[in-house]
Amino acid sequence: MSDSTTDVERLACDVLVIGAGGAGLRAAVEARLAGKSVIVISKSLFGKAHTVMAEGGAAAAMGNVNANDNWQVHFRDTMRGGKFLNNYRMAEIHAQEAPDRIWELETYGALFDRTADGRISQRNFGGHEYPRLAHVGDRTGLELIRTLQQKLVSLQQDDEAAGEGPDKLQVIDETTITELFVEQGAVKGAFGYRRGTGRFMAVSAPAIVLATGGIGRSFKVTSNSWEYTGDGHALALRAGASLINMEFIQFHPTGMVWPPSVRGILVTESVRGDGGVLKNSEGRRFMFDYIPEVFKAQYADNPEEADRWYTDPDHNRRPPELLPRDEVARAINSEVKAGRGTEHGGVYLDIASRRSAEYIIERLPSMHHQFKELADVDITAEPMEVGPTCHYIMGGVEVDAETAASSVTGLYAAGEVSGGMHGSNRLGGNSLSDLLVFGKRAGEFAAEHAAVTEQPVLSEDEIAAAQADALRPFGSGGENPYELQAALQAVNGRLVGIIRKAEELEEALTELEALRPRIANVAATGGRAYNPGWHLALDLRNMHLCSVATAKAALERDESRGGHTREDAPGMDPAWRRVNLVARLDGEELVLSRQDVPAMTPELLGLFDTSELAKYMTPEEYRSTEAEDA
Amino acid sequence: MSTRTFRVWRGDAEGGDFAEFDVAVNEGEVVLDVVHRIQAEQAPDLAVRWNCKAGKCGSCSAEVNGMPRLMCMTRMNAFEEREPVTITPLRTFPVVRDLVTDVSFNYEKARQMPQFAPPADLKPGEYRMQQVDVERSQEFRKCIECFLCQNTCHVVRDHEENKPPFSGPRLFIRAAELDMHPLDARDDRREAAQDEQGLGYCNITKCCTEVCPEHIKITDNAIIPMKERVAGDRYDPLVWLGRKIFRKDKKPA
Q1: Which tens digits make up the pLDDT trace of A67-115?
Q2: How far apart are CA B104 and CA A175, in angstroms?
Q3: Where would I find the 2Fe-2S ferredoxin-type domain in this sequence (chain B) (predicted)?
Q4: I need a labelling partner for A339 at 20 to 30 A (CA). Which of A319, A345, A475, B101 fits?
């Protein structure tokens, strides 16, 4: 293949959005509404993004079901869920703006489920004090994607009616970005290939929004699709931006473990919100044994009270099945390790014996349908076998809370690829609202930046270099990409999974180091047109880089918090609560540094009881509120 | 575990042929699991489109033993032990490579139809709708855009010439969804379906409904009501009644 770049497709726009899930599409809407020309790059077909998998709903304190809810309560729940490691300002903005972002979707045509008085209905979810999740049965993510997809089409139609060219808002599907172009600390464009033809493209853009989602494909048991290879995380690192909190990965507690056709696929938390309970192989409802001290005030310690909560939440504490996800995942893991798991290494999730078939089908239609069709399992008749599955990464690109800007000029990040909002653990329902709130902000500020920045010029040299990189796997004589992917997944699954310890993490880093040259030399066979082996070969280096970032940070943080559990360092350490681990790339090497977690304002600290703050913080940190109370 | 024979169509727009693979199949697997095993062990460049592997994204549409299906929702235990499994790309759309087809037809048709028109007098947060009223449209919004209905519809399946005037079942349920949306400000959805989308080409053979993995009652709940209402609006009811009576009168004779 030649080194000539004459066949590279050349494009230009004001705002380039990489990723067409909820965050990317919401960013694109905002940037276009601000008058900018926008290109959205979608790794798969338009409307297929991983957002469609979100089931439970979008958290927003609209107060439609319980009028006591408001942004302060939502903020409090989010900080608690994240074990106070969150970027408090992101959590604050998120809680304040989520209702507007949901209501806005109705004006785009979304049809949420309704309350009796015709408002948007809201459901209970783990870690949320009040019913808060706007939902559409259990296919809320699909509704979000379809609504935003259709909104983009309507904006394209508006452009057409106004006599604007089609280049004002383009969605380029089945295209992967392999590199960002950077000059003097500012982004200037991106390089990638169209999957269908293998043809390369170079896009000049003064502002780029990363909205590429997560890294879950680096784990063997995962709820994530093939697209989740940490592209945005790795692109940001190579562009000079920093990642924070990469050690925090959420293992969703209830992924299917059997049969293999559905391994890793989620059973929505709504199953537990609507009455489902977890039992071990001895039939014991074991979650009562795992309520941590910090949650004893909110969670029932006996089945009678827990069961009364479903109908009388004001006078009873919540069932412990609705503890934050990290707690439930760890509990299941402990039961299995203690030999009380199912035949296939999970536990039972039982709603069949607790609710009528009609109720289950009405409340959880797509869950019922999915397992019936995919696995021939009838959830109204038998318990499910579930266990933790890699689901979401809290860590990501370090961004400014107000603008979603990274430390690289012109580079923005929103949604799962960004870090800080969820601290050490994300509450269910907070990702759909997160991607709307910060997707909008990223689009808005990217557009603002583009307005004051000249259109960058891409050099033939940098395009040629990116092209040579992308073509390297052809004829490299190296290994099969599928085998290398399996090897990488095995390392992460075995050594960097839900329960970690120092010597295993050191072993992981050694094994990852050994994989590095093998991945650099990965081989692709066949041609460039729609060649999944080549695509995976190019994704592997991103997966590898993210894996190293996670393993290094996990080794460094010798405490247990949220989505990071160290068997050799149990419990939270107040000193670690003040520290974010920041990853940067120095040449080829990933380096870690420590940075202070932003300190909450006295007003926000005042939303919590000092007795609660004392569980997470040192006295000096919450002193200011005590002074006010007195 | 057993070894099964898979016949997979391989090629591109220029042409192609079946490739045969003997491949291991485990208990509880679906066709897509096996295609992935072929990819990993025998044909790394085998082109297949997929995403969620959970029946939620509608990417892995293909024809399995002649039936339009999602590969992730086709369980291997649905086949006889000795029966070879034959997979071909969707027939109605141009082949890109192997099992991947160019489905841009569907996106172009979506681009042509007017989107939701918000009511002018309601601000965000003021929308009020009853569950019973939104449910009718919600059925159609379950659509995962796998395009199996579009692929199966005989109006376009072997009739390239019908593609320009005909939008297909996916877009008919979109029109019905907006027509039944309690707050959509447009009142010409049915007429547009008839005049712009080619609703009239449909002669209600229900093939689309049969292949829908979401079990949306495309024909009964969207197409037929749209056709009836168009007919009802187009023709004066008295004239229609008169015709009917006239015909009845004629019948005995």
Answers
A1: 999 999 999 999 999 999 999 999 999 999 999 999 999 999 999 999 9
A2: 14
A3: 4-93
A4: A319
CATH 3.10.560.10 fits B104-237, yes or no: no
| A8 has pLDDT over 60 | yes
A400: exposed, middle or buried (Cβ count in 10 Å: 0-12, 13-18, 19+): middle
* Å between A28 CA and nearest CA of chain B: 17
Q: How confident is the model at residue B237 (pLDDT cuts 50, 70, 90)?
A: low
Nearest CA in chain A to B72: A374
Tell the CATH topology of A252-389.
Flavocytochrome C3; Chain A, domain 1 (3.90.700)
d(Cα A211, Cα A229) in Å, to the nearest integer? 13
Quick one: which of A249, A188, A196 has its CA closest to A218? A249
pLDDT at A604: 96
Taking CB atoms and an 8 Å limit, are A366 and B56 in contact across chains? yes
Residues of A with Cβ-Cβ distance to B53 under 8 angstroms: 225, 265
Of B55, B96, B114, Cβ closest to residue A530: B96
A199-208, A243-252, A373-382, A525-534, range with the lowest pLDDT = A373-382
* pLDDT tens digits, A196-219: 999 999 999 999 999 999 999 999
pLDDT at A627: 47
How many angstroms separate the Cα of A4 from the Cα of each of A188, A190, A466, A467, A527? 21, 18, 12, 9, 18
- Chosen for mutation from B26, B70, B95, B115 (greatest number of chain A CBs closer than 10 Å) is B115
Q: Which of B56, B103, B131 sits opposite A114 (nearest CB)?
A: B131
**What architecture (CATH level 2) is domain A9-248+394-461?**
3-Layer(bba) Sandwich (3.50)
- Name the residue among A453, A397, A441 with its Cα closest to residue A184: A453
At A544-564, the pLDDT tens digits run 999 999 999 999 999 999 999
Specify the CATH architecture of the domain A472-576: Up-down Bundle (1.20)
Query: Smallest CA–CA separation between B158 and chain A, in Å?
Result: 24
Q: pTM to 2 decimals?
A: 0.92
A528 CB neighbours in chain B (<8 A) are: none
CA A347 vs CA A204, A392, A444, A475, A587: distances in Å: 51, 21, 45, 47, 45
Look at A153 and B110 and tell me if their CB atoms are within 8 Å.
yes
Residues of A forming the active site: 325
User: What are B121-178's pLDDT values in tens digits?
Assistant: 999 999 999 999 999 999 999 999 999 999 999 999 999 999 999 999 999 999 999 9
